[in-house]
């Protein structure tokens, strides 16, 4: 299969392969521990084998803090057109949060409403349904990278973040360095857009390493790292079903960025997305999901 730049599918591929090695019990146990359904899951379902959507979240969760989303990617998959989109949402995007009845930065939706409030806010912002979410604890993200033996990245910049130096060029890095590489924003000329690009690169490299045969010999450490740092409303059976039904759709991936203007509103800096830009993006995603306007 062609390289898949979706962390969600990294899980499915890992689980799908290791099940064939007669370790279903361990995989099922890890999947059960990661499973955290949304309250409305029983009410909102997608058509079998129809277009589906995912919200991938990297969350900063530290002791004494409710946490904020450090990265946010919406994935839509259409098995009929065999196309997938990945839409990165800038963390400072100004959105209206219904439960607070006010405008906020989208990365604060998790602070105010947890995963339920975040999913709902993203749905309202893009005017599309979100069927599944995968939440990754960013602090534990390094454990996942270390469990697969590190990843190779190709840095376009030379920078230092929080005492960790990353030279320009191709290099094999451990989890600690990979986390800094994915997080840096201020020294990137493209700001949050450059950071989003590096995050997608890291996800891609995790797929590269995580689906190699050498990683499968270390599957227990990988499962432990995933289990400790990921929550999702996907069951193991659903992951396996999706892997079988949608794998052809990830051969054609379009990566989208949300344009706008960084400016102050009421004394705070936001990424403000014009209504015309938001409407055009929403129409594109709704078409991708076969939703009639």
Automatic annotation (TrEMBL):
Alphabetical keyword list:
Membrane, Signal-anchor, Transmembrane, Transmembrane helix
Q: Which Gene3D superfamilies match?
A: LCP protein
List the InterPro entries: LytR/CpsA/Psr_CW_biosynth, LytR_CpsA_psr
Q: Where is the Cell envelope-related transcriptional attenuator domain?
A: 68-209
- NCBIfam families for the chain: lytR_cpsA_psr
Family stated for the protein in its record: Belongs to the LytR/CpsA/Psr (LCP) family.
Q: What is this protein called?
A: LCP family protein
Organism whose genome encodes this protein: Bacillus changyiensis
């Amino acid at each position: 299969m062609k390289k898949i730049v979706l962390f969600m599918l990294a899980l499915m591929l890992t689980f799908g392969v290791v099940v064939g090695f007669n370790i279903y019990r361990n995989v099922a146990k890890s999947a059960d521990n990661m499973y955290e359904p949304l309250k409305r899951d029983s009410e909102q379902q997608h058509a079998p084998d129809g277009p589906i959507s995912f919200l991938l979240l990297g969350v900063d969760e530290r002791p004494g803090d409710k946490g904020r989303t450090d990265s946010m990617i919406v994935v839509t998959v259409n098995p009929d057109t065999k196309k997938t989109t990945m839409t990165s949402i800038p963390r400072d995007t100004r959105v209206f949060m219904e439960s607070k009845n006010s405008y906020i930065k989208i990365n604060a939706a998790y602070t105010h409403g947890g995963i339920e409030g975040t999913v709902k806010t993203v749905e309202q912002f893009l005017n599309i349904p979100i069927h599944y979410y995968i939440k990754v604890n960013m602090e534990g993200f390094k454990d996942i990278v270390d469990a697969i033996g590190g990843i190779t990245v190709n840095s376009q910049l030379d920078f230092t973040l929080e005492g960790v130096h990353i030279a320009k060029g191709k290099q094999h890095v451990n989890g600690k360095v990979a986390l800094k590489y994915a997080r840096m924003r201020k020294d990137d000329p493209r700001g949050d857009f450059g950071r989003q690009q590096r995050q997608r690169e890291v996800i891609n490299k995790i797929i590269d390493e995580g689906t190699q045969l050498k990683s499968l010999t270390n599957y227990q450490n990988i499962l432990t790292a995933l289990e400790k740092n990921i929550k999702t409303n996907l069951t193991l059976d659903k992951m396996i079903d999706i892997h079988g039904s949608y794998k052809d759709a990830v051969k054609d991936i379009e990566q989208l960025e949300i344009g706008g203007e960084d400016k102050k509103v009421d004394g705070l800096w936001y990424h403000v997305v014009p209504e015309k830009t938001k409407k055009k993006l929403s129409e594109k995603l709704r078409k991708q999901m076969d939703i009639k306007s």
